[in-house]
Amino acid sequence: METLDAIRLRCSLKTKLSEREVPPDAVEAVLRAACLAPSARNSQPWRFVVVRGREAIDALAAAALPEASAVIRRAPVIVVACALPAVGVTVGDRPYFLYDVGSAVQNLLLAATDRGLATHLIASFDEAAVKRVLRIPDDVRVVVLTPLAWPDAASYQEAAAERLSQRTRLPFEEVVFEGFWGGA
Ligand SMILES: Cc1cc2nc3c(=O)[nH]c(=O)nc-3n(C[C@H](O)[C@H](O)[C@H](O)COP(=O)(O)O)c2cc1C
To answer: Tens digits of per-residue pLDDT, 21-37?
Structure first.
């Protein structure tokens, strides 16, 4: 798939997840793409916990807020993206570790889309509870998690069609300025 096609096709598909097994090599491929992201001073402050298996996923779902727990329970694999603030770079008052993890996660989402795998970022969880369940140390932040699942449809494109048809984005002119802030 072309890069721009993956960018256009990627969407959040929590209502279209199938429970069908996702092979370990597909999971590894998207995580390797995540690890190719840029990071401040190449600090690579991301860490990922891959959660599979009914029992582990149910325990993680219990640490999520109610609206997210059903989604987590349905997925065969959950990737939990974490950040190491102490490893990441801070410039003045700007901590870049969240930015770096976001870049890595975006790579992961695009690589998953390229392989026809559905994703949906979720931030609705109790961080302390997720840490307890996954034995994540205190100095690590849990940033976001996503299911990795085959879409419950004949193809990724078919699963995404409805969501993409309803996609809303701010008008381009509202977010891109020419030359100076507010410039047309
Ligand atoms: C950091 C982050 C956290 C998110 N957390 C949630 C969440 O907790 N629950 C949810 O349903 N969607 C969540 N989303 C998905 C967004 O709602 C979604 O990306 C946005 O509506 C745009 O839709 P699209 O991804 O289909 O383009 C999250 C997205 C991001 C980037």
So the answer is: 999 999 999 999 999 99
Domain count, the chain: 1
Counting ligand 1 atoms within 8 A of each CB, the residue from 82, 100, 122, 168 with the most, and so the one to mutate, is: 122
Put simply, whether the predicted model's pTM sits higher than 0.90 gets the answer yes
Token pair recorded at residue 146: 């996503």
124 assigned to some structural domain: yes
In this predicted model, what pLDDT tens digit does every residue of 15-72 receive, in sequence order?
Answer: 999 999 999 999 999 999 999 999 999 999 999 999 999 999 999 999 999 989 999 9
70 pocket-lining for ligand 1 (C-beta < 6 Å): no
Per the domain annotation, does 143 fall within a domain?
A: yes
Q: Does residue 176 form part of some domain? A: no
Q: What is the domain-level CATH number for residue 59?
A: 3.40.109.10
Rounded to the nearest angstrom, the distance between the alpha carbon of 64 and the centre of ligand 1 is 15
